[in-house]
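Checklist before submission:
- one chain only
- standard amino acids only
- sequence pasted in full

Submission:
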Amino acid sequence: MSRALMPNLLTPQDLEPNWEWRERLPAWGHTSVDFERRVDHDRLRRYRLSRTRQSLQNSNAGSLLLFDVNNIRYVTATKIGEWERDKMCRFCLLTGDDSPYVWDFGSAAVHHKRHSDWLEPDHCLAGVVGMRGTIPPEFGLMQKYAKMIAQLIKDAGMADMPVGVDYAETAMFHALKAEGINVVDGQQIMLAAREIKNWDEIQLLTQAAAMVDGVYHMIYEELKPGVRENDIVAMSNKLLYEMGSDDVEAINAISGERCNPHPHNFTDRLIRPGDQAFFDILQSYQGYRTCYYRTFNVGRATPSQNDAYKKAREWIDASIAMIKPGVSTDKVAEVWPTAQSLGFDNEDQAFGLQFGHGLGLALHERPIISRAVSLDHPMEIQTGMVFALETYCPATDGYSAARIEEEVVVTETGCEVISLFPAEELPIANRY
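Returned file contents:
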């Protein structure tokens, strides 16, 4: 019998999320132990592959060709370092009922054969296509692998069905077309698969949020005049990697007059007394990501700054109260203020300020909640979804602003917040 997770070894139970709702979702330690059942990685791998197969069966495609590293990890449970993210140097194929193939960067394929025993050894292949065009198309690698992919699809009996591709270089699309492959949107198939998290994914997301809880305590202690925004970013990166983060994607650090309008970055600006400052920690633990804003004031706060914070808190509390299975995303978006009420011309300008988005192996998964899209294109909220809700309120002083974000897990009866650093009232760091 193959050591791989072949289709006949995938049972209906593999599709079950295995939720174990309790009073508080656990944030386990990083290690595996014999006296507690923590993350079950075998179950996680089976669940993700079975969700992908189910989503593929629900589509008009017969195969999936994936270049997005998040999708590759979801299907094959392989990862070769965060440097891979923008290289377009890896790809995988899921064809009919066959086991997934993964083409990897040089010797990484040999490593998978030795250590990824849930994969078929002869499905772990070395291969590379364009690497964002640095290997010119005329070298022929695109054609070589397009031909190989087409043959595998034919061997699996899927040649007459479309192939879902998430994204690829333009030359790769031309090479696939030349082989007679009918390409359809595979990213939608994969996003549908990834919508509902199982118990193991939820535990990993909770652990990632717990790490950020600790970072915010550090920021609360370190936020004082003379410290620069980039100093906070450096200290946060250090602490997160010490905690076990595998990727600190970004840390927004916004203070003082930079708060309004929101620039979504950090600088070397010095923190000053009375500043309102907000931060966003985007990092991952075993691939599972956080998006988690908190706002602080330094030393003291004005009535205008307090009012902005209270409004941002009211809006996020109103949206959290709406989160339960069966509610559509337009109903959540409706409790948020209009773009015009915040001084913007339209909802496109305000996009991302009153916002909700799924969390998982990617920062932005389904559902997306925004007045710009959800009012006309609502989605149903389902048990097992995990997403972040974020609100923003500019202060009447013309430059301060408050930003709050909570991560929520949709339970069978409502939702549970897993971002736990206190944010019910405006935190004043190093109060005068």
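Reviewer check: Residues 199-222 form the longest helix (24 residues).
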